[in-house]
Amino acid sequence: MRIVLQRVSEASVRVKGSVNGAINTGLLVFLGIEEADTFEDIDWLCNKVLKMRIFNNEKKVMNLSLQDIDGEVLVISQFTLHASTKKGNRPGYIKAAKPEIAIPLYEEFNKHLEKLLGKPIKTGIFGADMKVSLLNDGPVTILIDSKNRE
User: Fold this and answer.
1) 2-145: what CATH class?
2) Catalytic residue among 80, 85, 123, 141
3) Catalytic status, residue 80
C-alpha cells in the first residue's frame, strides 16, 4: 500500500461536476492499493497519517501531527501510485490491485482512519474520474510505502 500525503490549507474532489468531499487544514491522502496488501498495512499507514509530525508549531517548526492540530483528511484512491515505469514510456499497472480486492481495502482504510481520528473523513469515489483541487501548504508532500517499513 502506498500513500502520498500532502499538507493542505484546503482540498476538494469533484465527481461529475459536484463536490464529493472538501476539507480545510489537514491532509490530502492519495492511496494506492496492491494485491498483497492486508489490514496490517492499513493499520500501519493509518497510524502514520495521524502521527506524522508535518504541521508547524508556534515556532514554525514541523513538529505537530494531524491529531495535534485537529486537522481534516481527504482520501483519494489512486491506482497509478503502483505504476511501473521500467520499460518504455507507457506505465504498467500490474501491481495495482483489481477492484474486487482494492475496493474492500480502500473502504477498510477509510473506516479505520476515521475510527482512529475520531471524526469523519472525506473521500473521493473509488474508480471515478475525479478532479482534485488543493492548496498545498509548504509545500509538504511525503511518500510512504507500507512495504518499506525499515
Assistant:
1) alpha beta
2) 80
3) yes
